[in-house]
Each structure stands twice: as C-alpha cells, then as structure tokens.
C-alpha cells in the first residue's frame, strides 16, 4: 500500500508545486474561469510559488506519493475576524489530477484539521467556487457544510460566486 507523506514545502519544491498548481487549475477551472484569465494565472505560478516559498512565514505544505510532490495546500488563521478565534482556514488545496481518488486529498484535509486542533481551534473554514461541483462533493464527503456566506470575485471580467464551507472539529481521543 502506498503511503502519503505530508511535509512543509521547501524552496526546492518550487517547480513541482507550480506544476501541481497549474495542472489542478486546468482540470478544476476550465469552463469556470475564462480561458485567458486561467492561462494568465497558470503562467504566473512558477514565480509566484518561488516568492511564496521564499518567505519565512509561508504556510504551504505538500503531499508526496512515492516521493513525488503531487499535492499542495495552505492553511492558517481565519481571514474573517468574527471566526478567527475558533477557526482555522484552508486557503487552498490542489492535487494533481493524475492522483485523484487515492486518499491523498483526504490526507491533506486531515493534516490541516489536526493542525487546527493543535492550535486550539474548533472549526475549519474554506471557500470554493459554486460551480466547482467535484470539489464541493469532496468537501462535503470530508464533513464540511455550507455555512451560508457568499462572495463574488472578478476573474477576467466574469464574476464567479464563492461559497464558504465550515466543519466543526471533533477532539481526537
């Protein structure tokens, strides 16, 4: 059985992290984000990842499968002041499409939730595009539920609705 390894990303992961981000963006957002904007976002990934991983306070973690970086995720304090006392936020989670349905995404979620509990948080929140049905199904299977808050963001001239999900974290026994 293959094991997923989770660790904090390091600067040497830049190329692999950018590749995962690009491939997962293409798979998840084609048909949601306008093509020109999606291409622009993907083209910016290598430099953006390098800048992010160069910072001491970066929150990027990676999932490795057979020693290869196949997923990335970021989490930390909730950006919403009203929720920040009790919640951690999953800022992003991306998995290379060739590695779906192997338990890697669930392992990344479990890791982030464990870290939230270690920081004394009782819930986890995340944002997802309303149109991203596969991601929404995944989050719901992980125990997240629609919280009710929505927002719209402009992506290349197209307003895309985002939905906030929340999961109450159970104490580990």
List the helices and strands and how they pair.
Elements (H helix, E strand, L loop, with lengths): L3 E5 L5 H16 L5 H9 L1 H10 L5 E6 L2 E10 L3 H4 L2 E9 L8 H15 L4 E7 L3 H9 L3 E11 L2 E11 L5
Parallel strand pairs: 4-5
Antiparallel strand pairs: 1-2, 2-3, 3-4, 5-7, 6-7
Task: Walk me through the structure.
The protein has 173 residues and is an alpha+beta fold. It has one domain (4-168): 3-Layer(aba) Sandwich (Aminopeptidase). It contains six helices and seven strands, in the order βαααββαβαβαββ. Strands 1-2-3-4-5-7-6 form a seven-stranded mixed sheet. Helix 5 (104-118) links the parallel strand 4 (87-95) and strand 5 (123-129). Helix 1 (14-29) runs antiparallel to helix 2 and helix 1 packs across helix 3 (45-54). The longest helix is centred in the N-terminal third of the chain and has 16 residues, at 14-29. The protein is globular, with a radius of gyration of 16 Å.
Key descriptive features of the protein:
173 residues, alpha+beta, Aminopeptidase, seven-stranded mixed β-sheet, 34% strand
What's this, in brief?
The protein is globular and about 40 Å long. It has six helices and seven strands; from the N terminus they run βαααββαβαβαββ.
């Amino acid at each position: 059985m293959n094991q997923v390894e989770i660790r904090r990303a390091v600067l040497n992961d830049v190329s692999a992290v950018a590749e995962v981000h690009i491939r997962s963006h293409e798979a998840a957002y084609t048909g949601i984000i306008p093509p020109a904007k999606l291409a622009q976002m993907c083209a910016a990934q290598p430099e953006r990842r390098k800048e992010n991983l160069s910072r001491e306070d970066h929150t990027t973690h990676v999932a490795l499968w057979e020693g290869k970086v196949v997923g990335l995720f970021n989490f930390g304090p909730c950006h919403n002041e009203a929720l920040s006392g009790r919640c951690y936020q999953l800022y992003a989670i991306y998995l290379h499409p060739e590695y779906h349905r192997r338990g890697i995404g669930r392992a990344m979620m479990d890791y982030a939730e464990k870290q939230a509990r270690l920081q004394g948080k009782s819930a986890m929140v995340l944002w997802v595009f309303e149109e991203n049905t596969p991601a929404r199904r995944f989050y719901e299977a992980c125990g997240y539920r629609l919280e009710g808050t929505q927002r719209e963001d402009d992506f290349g001239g197209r307003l895309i609705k985002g939905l906030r999900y929340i999961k109450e974290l159970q104490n580990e026994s």
